[in-house]
Design goal:
Mean pLDDT: 97
CATH class of the largest domain: Alpha Beta
Structural class: alpha+beta
Pfam families: HI0933_like, HI0933_like_1st
Low-confidence stretches: none
InterPro entries: BaiN-like, BaiN-like_dom_sf, FAD/NAD-bd_sf, RsdA/BaiN/AoA(So)-like_dom, RsdA/BaiN/AoA(So)_Rossmann
Largest sheet: 7 strands, mixed
Domain RsdA/BaiN/AoA(So)-like Rossmann fold-like: 7-394
Bound molecules: flavin-adenine dinucleotide
Protein name: HI0933 family protein
CATH topology of the largest domain: FAD/NAD(P)-binding domain
Domain RsdA/BaiN/AoA(So)-like insert: 191-341
Radius of gyration: 25 Å
Length: 396
């Protein structure tokens, strides 16, 4: 049995693991990174539609969920979005800002992966892909990890950067959570987040004809609201506004949707009715406010198929409510199959916020998505991966 010894073993060559390995390597630590995927940074590669929304210029703790979102403050401050942008600039990677401070590569997410793998090589990090970590045991002051190729790695510091459970097809498992529990750490409840929401059959029958229709919406769950695009799908609702609210929504709860935020629908329909003797069809008038297909479905549902002159103001008020006061109960979500992230994870009260080291097991670190720190849609999750990876890299 082949046994090798490193100062640091990093499990997972994702955003967080690579960042940590680079920093530890630069400090002169001998570092090995192991990933059971065929290539490093697979989630980076598919992120942001292949262009990787690598950070958000407005990142702050307000953009994160978890038992204690303030936990993230130290790492986000020590290695901020501005530090990562400088790094991307130094690597000569061109980027652009989309809406809401979201930064994307102009060309390809692969440039970010290349930047990180080049930096790992320069820092002397040994990277092994296609090799998983099966078991880990505490041995003396350090750890012994059994790899899937039959070899063993001994290390003083073990950094768990194994990500969450989303997209199992890409090899995501709950391995990091299991290891945390094995080491006696608390793990908060995990659930799919940044995920499309689904409807039950009866409701789907009404909304399926709208599949593909997108609106700029305000979507609320409890006191939380997001104003972004929303998309009707064959399963329910998707689009940025829905992915965002999915992190706050819980089974059994309703969400409320305004599909023409800021528009007084009733006043506009009444004004249209007063023109030309109300000859305009109701769906045509409503089609000036929301997409035509949505207007047709809503007017048919409210029995307002005719001309404006033929319907009373009560019906127009019902249309107003259907557009800007839609309360709907999703039955569930599309789950980890399509979720961008996992909400919950290793409880932050078990970790040191400066270094990501566990308080109870010296030498054991958790970084990135496996930790109970979850960002909004918009580049925040990668920023957490860079910041937490950097913080652990200074200490492990
Ligand atoms: C489709 C999609 C698009 C996304 N787009 C964006 C975006 O544009 N911007 C953004 O901020 N966030 C985005 N995210 C979220 C982002 O990808 C994650 O938050 C981020 O990748 C987490 O980084 P990580 O290093 O913690 O984990 P990961 O990137 O998941 O890396 C974990 C690695 O550990 C490996 N691993 C797990 N268990 C083991 C084991 N036992 N042995 C060996 N290796 C193991 C896995 O193979 C994986 O490579 C997206 C997510 C998805 C699914």
């Amino acid at each position: 049995m082949k046994t090798e010894t490193f100062d640091v073993l990093v499990v997972g060559a994702g955003a967080a693991g690579m960042m940590c390995a680079i920093e530890a390597g630069r400090r002169g630590r001998s570092v090995r990174v192991v990933d059971h995927a065929r290539a490093p940074g697979e989630k980076i590669r598919i992120s942001g539609g292949g262009r990787c929304n690598f950070t958000n210029t407005g990142t702050s703790v307000a953009n994160f969920l978890g038992e204690n979102p303030m936990f993230a403050a130290s790492a986000l401050k020590r290695y901020s979005q501005h530090d990562f942008i400088k790094r991307v600039d130094r690597a000569g990677i061109a980027w652009h800002e989309k809406t809401l401070g979201q930064l994307f590569c102009d060309d390809s997410a692969k440039q970010i992966i290349r930047m990180l793998t080049d930096d790992m090589r320069a820092a002397g990090v040994v990277l092994s892909t296609g090799v998983g970590v099966d078991r880990v045991e505490r041995v003396g002051e350090g750890f012994e990890a059994a790899l899937s190729d039959g070899s063993v790695v001994r290390c003083a510091s073990l950094v768990v950067a194994s990500g969450g459970k989303s997209i199992p097809k890409m090899g995501a498992t709950g391995w990091g959570y299991d290891l945390a529990r094995q080491m006696g750490l608390r793990v908060t409840e995990t659930r799919p987040a940044l995920v499309p929401l689904t409807f039950e059959a009866g409701l789907l029958e009404q909304t399926t004809p709208l599949a593909g229709v997108a609106v700029d919406a305000v979507v609320s769950a409890g006191k939380t609201r997001f104003e972004e695009a929303m998309l009707f799908t064959h399963r329910g609702l998707s689009g940025p506004a829905i992915l965002q609210i999915s992190s706050y929504w819980r089974e059994g709860e309703a969400i409320t949707v305004k599909m023409a935020p800021g528009v007084d629908v009733l006043a506009q329909l009444k004004a249209a009715k007063a023109e030309n003797g109300g000859k305009q069809a109701v769906h045509t008038a409503l089609g000036h406010i929301v997409p035509r297909r949505l207007a047709e479905v809503l007017t048919a549902r409210e029995g307002a198929g005719g001309k404006l002159a033929e319907v009373g103001d009560k019906v127009l008020a019902r249309l107003d409510a259907a557009v800007n006061g839609w309360t709907v109960k999703p039955v569930g979500s599309e789950g980890y199959r399509t979720a961008e992230v996992t909400l919950g994870g290793v409880a932050t009260d078990q970790l040191d916020q400066q270094t990501m080291a566990t308080k109870s097991v010296p030498g054991l670190y958790f970084i990135g998505e496996v930790v109970d720190v979850t960002g909004w849609l918009g580049g925040y999750n990668f920023q957490w991966a860079w910041s937490s990876g950097w913080a652990a890299g200074q200490a492990c």
